[in-house]
Amino acid sequence: MRLFERISLWWHNIFRKRKLVIVEPESGAERWYAHLSPMAMVMSGVALVTIVFAILLALVAYTPLLDMLPGYRTDASRSRQTLIRTLIRVDSLERKMNSMLVYNENRILVVDGKMPTMSSVKSDSVAFDKSIVPPSGADSLFRRQMESDRLFTINASSANQSHTKITAVKPMEGIIAERFNAKVGLFGIRMAAAAEQQIVSIAQGTVVAVDWLPESGNSIVVQHDNGIVSMSRNLSGAIVTRGQRVNAGEVIGYSAAEQDAEKMFEFEMWMGGKPLNPESYIVF
Questions:
Q1: How much is the pTM?
Q2: Model confidence at 127, in pLDDT bands (50, 70, 90)?
Q3: Structure confidence at residue 275 (pLDDT)
């Protein structure tokens, strides 16, 4: 019973108000006073600590307060910058590898006599389709009608195509350094010219590949309306994109800034999976 009475008395004293007074030391006169209980003082202290903590948390989260402290985020910032640089390099390497795979696939299709297609490409986050016109029944019927006409067909063999029926312009102003020789694996020509020379499309067509490879630099592949596929390699840069329509003589890129035996401009022409001698179709 005594224990219960002690607990009850302690609980009553906690909520019992006391008078807090501020007096002058000389005269003893009261200047300010307040009636407070121990529980009220404890709750006021907890509330004050909570408010101060919330203010500090807001300052740390939404202001550069910690960055002003010398050496606080030095290691963290260095680690973050290193991680960002690594991610950028990995992303760039992935893009290069994807470009190389697409280029190799299109080149295999051209060598096999097939037409490279502009399939759907996946970026980092969104899949998008680069098809110029979605296929439809009417489109398929129109294609069959056009391809059945020998005048407009693009699937004719190279034996039925005469170079006199093909109007093409030379891809670059320069000198032919190495001529076409399929027996030694040179399926086109190599030209020497001034640095950053303009590279143009030999005829009207559609760009089917714009890629970069370590051994041949920037490369551009154009599918022309007459069934010929032209390939330009060892470029310093390309100003066209895959799927873009180009006209004869339109600039598509630039030759290498520093040309040597390995970085010399290369130009090839293909039809029906067979290499063509560019000099038989173009006056250089």
A1: 0.44
A2: very low
A3: 92
